[in-house]
Design a protein that fits this description.
single chain; alpha+beta; 2 helices; 5 strands; 12% helix; globular; binds zinc ion
Length: 95
Amino acid sequence: MIRSSKINALRRAGVLVCGDDEFVFYKCRNCDAISLMNEELLQLYLNPADLSEGVLWATDELPVQCPTCHAFDDFVPLEDDERVLVLKSDWGRFL
Ligand SMILES: [Zn+2]
C-alpha cells in the first residue's frame, strides 16, 4: 500500500481533508490509471488535475467508472513496489 505523504499539498489542491485521513494510491486493474483514495471518507479522486471533487466509492453506492477505460469498480491499492508508477504519473507530486 502506498500512502500520500503530501497532505498539505492535497489540501491546497482542493481535497477535503478532515483530521487523520489516510490517502492511498489506487490503480485501475484494467488500464493501470492511477487514482487516490481517502480511506476515511471513501472518496476516490480520479483526476490529478482536478482534486476539487472526489466520488464516493463504497459497496452500497453507485458504481464508479474509470475515466480512462470506463471499467466499473475495478480499483485496487497499488503495491509497495509500484511507487515508480506514481512517480512517473501526474500524481507524483503528491507521493
Ligand atoms: Zn481503467
